[in-house]
User: Fold this.
Amino acid sequence: TNMRLDQKLWPLLCFLLLRPPPCSSSNILVVPIGGSHWINMKMILEQLHSRGHNITVLRSAKSWYIPNNSSIYTSINISTLADESDINYYNKMLQDVMECRTYPTFIRTFCQQYLITSMFDQGHKILARSVATIIEDTVFIQKLQDTKFDLMLTDPGLTIGMLLATYLELPIVFNVRWINTLLTPSPISYVPVSGSELHDQMDFLERIKNMLHYLYNVIEQHLIINPAYSDLLQQHFPPGTDLLSLQRRADIWLFRADFVFEFPRPTMPNVVYIGGFHCKKAQPLPAELEAFMQSSGEHGVVVMSLGTLISVLPRKVTEAIAAAFAELPQKVIWRFVGEKPSSLGHNTLLLEWLPQNDLLGHPKTRAFVSHGGTNGMYEAIYHSVPVVGLPLLFDQFDNLLRLKVRGAARVVEAYSLTKEGFLGALKDVLENPSFHTNMQHLSQLHRDKPVTPMETAIFWIEYVIRNKGAPHLQSAGFHLPWYSYFCLDVAALTIALTGLFIWALVFVCRLLCCRRSKRKMKPE
Amino acid sequence: TNMRLDQKLWPLLCFLLLRPPPCSSSNILVVPIGGSHWINMKMILEQLHSRGHNITVLRSAKSWYIPNNSSIYTSINISTLADESDINYYNKMLQDVMECRTYPTFIRTFCQQYLITSMFDQGHKILARSVATIIEDTVFIQKLQDTKFDLMLTDPGLTIGMLLATYLELPIVFNVRWINTLLTPSPISYVPVSGSELHDQMDFLERIKNMLHYLYNVIEQHLIINPAYSDLLQQHFPPGTDLLSLQRRADIWLFRADFVFEFPRPTMPNVVYIGGFHCKKAQPLPAELEAFMQSSGEHGVVVMSLGTLISVLPRKVTEAIAAAFAELPQKVIWRFVGEKPSSLGHNTLLLEWLPQNDLLGHPKTRAFVSHGGTNGMYEAIYHSVPVVGLPLLFDQFDNLLRLKVRGAARVVEAYSLTKEGFLGALKDVLENPSFHTNMQHLSQLHRDKPVTPMETAIFWIEYVIRNKGAPHLQSAGFHLPWYSYFCLDVAALTIALTGLFIWALVFVCRLLCCRRSKRKMKPE
Assistant:
């Protein structure tokens, strides 16, 4: 019975055989986030569909990313929800962030955080109103209830999912990029708060900064996010419900993290790591693109993409990038929308869309110029392609920092980008072999898993369906008020008792001393 | 490609096919603990051996549990090590613990803890001297170095393993029942310290008790355990090495926990849960035993065993147990050493040894009377057999508490055991169907895993060998001094700055007030 298989064969066999038979087909309600998050979620939905589950996706009627018609799911369209792909909005935000980046290190992350908070402030008010509309539509709710869903699969970033799941009393599986710092043990001495641009080895000042970020998150949660929902929650939910208590209901957090990328951090047993679950082998390229790749000869190709949200970089920046590319012996494929830069070299191919995963997995690819979106970073790790980072928004600064400290990326600031600086970083990554070696090491570790991250994700989704939740994996700390959770009550009593003891000691000493001195003073 | 297999077939297929090909055969050095821990470790060694690894076991030359001659490993005998199976020692300890149990709840766990500390105090001094002898034997150390071991597999409870691994600069995998509270984020508000007999939902007083247990552990570590090794570490190890820093070196902690049993707690990513990995399907019983089982008819059988360490319960207790058994309609199989109780009924079979796993997996078995050893508890869960607990030593009180709060066990105190009390608990577990139902639920959850715990254990052992360690999974908090780790420095600065700010505010206010009042006082 000691059958041994070839290294290349067994992942395939596992994929075919490991999967337990699906629980009899279930009804899964999905509330996805658009953009790159949707690319992720869709791949999970494809798997769930192929395993016989019925999927219903709740989407904005105006959504640009999430199609209305699909062979794998039924759509429910919500007209009150905003479209998540307002390109102008993100382009405006990019300007503001680049402004922030000019401030000193200690301040700029808070400046960026504040921009996100302003965005949240608007967004959450709209979301709360949408959910109120949905819940007050009794016919619609009755229809949802009649469907007898077995599970809500959602990202807590779009709060509709957990609000509806709680209202309909469904088990919840989260598909998340970030674990909520306020809900998970996150010792601020070595777990950098997201958005802080800190790594896990912090000096005293950095730990202070991390604490400030943590406190900022607390304030944001309680002064900005929670109030947006207070009317909704008061009217339609049991007393005491707030947004954090809704997140605490989650049975499983599918955490898109892998510790070749993420810094080691503690998590509760209902957190399942699925980082890089979307990565897959490269498919053959279209003929022209393949010809372009081959034409690069021994020098290979640099691939550049800034993701789905940003369409326009400042003119000055694109010109500098194009000019730097023009000086490379490599060929370049650049995902580019907008006016063609005047300094563009003959070696550079502009494309409005590119098959990113297939290009990164191509043997001619030598480097990846990226904004640092999470999906792209895991694809770069999976295919061992070193990165030149050009972070623009959100978690992209944090993401690139993670590759940088592992010697697998160089990071360039967009606001101060010059041709020379960018070219220097590019040449460093292309010519210094350590970047590729480090990336290969990360790739090897990342692929070394007992079960693929995708199979892990599917297993735990079906686990929650099979077992109607997973309350035995939830923290008992959730039932405590915050001062008990952080042991402040126990600490206060300890300090008080110690104080009392010292005071009593001093009191007794004085009493004894006084008596003695009185006795001394008394004439014999 | 959407092959689906029968529910019963796929675990077998996984077992055969999932296992990656072994890394080319490696040399593994093992320092096991005896007793029930050895039963566990041996099963892992059998797997590793079948996958082609060369195993060397370092054992006490006097060891009773760990055989010298084996077809799966080579032995290294250390004559200075004590035998771990001094039955008289544990019988004496049982008397002391039973004395402790008569004290009020709040005190008794500390009393027990103190007994363990006294045991540690002796044990660690002996261990430190043994390791010094080993290290000073340069011929022996050279021999070990020449073998070029790839890994140390050990339990940190027996410190020799990690001391040798550090000296020989080997990667370490721990096989542990308890995670060190001082090394893992263990919020004392909802993570009960081992030995505290608390569960995860604690009231204020219980949290105080938990904190005291935590502080007790801190004191024990620094005043009892660390000093025992200070000479050894000063002479043979780099400056600053202490017993905690050795544990921090561990690449993977194989944690014998499953959260159907253990309370949910945070852990770092280098902690791998393998609780119940030793459980397996029941094998057919010997013919006479099978006949005895069948003779029980519809009533079934009660199985009783108090584990490997304790041979003699007080006479009064065994008489009461025997008398209670005699009144049951069930048949009873009792693992028993010593003088036969006079009150023994005709339904009770005494055996000096019993095939515990096969009996628990037998369809006639209705209840398990157990001391609450970890192995037995997982076997009871695996085979869905409810438990009547008779905790005697160590973690047995904690273990049984875990099953009790889940409605799968009744617990009886040995020191105050009466026939009536014991019979009541037995009848409750046998007649109230909720115990069996709850155990079945735990069993179902326990078996619902993407990979078997044994395969998980083997995967991570080979992972560390393949990748020569797993430093990317280790906490960055380990490099911080304790006051930074617990953020006390950051908190102190924050409090100081807040204080300074308030003081400045008061100062300025006073200044302004004074000036105004002076102005008022000044005659116009």
About this structure: Chain B has two domains: 20-277+452-479, 287-447. Chain B touches chain A through 69 residues (CB under 8 Å). Chain B has 18 helices and 13 strands. Residues 20-277+452-479 of chain B form a domain with the Rossmann fold fold (CATH 3.40.50.2000).
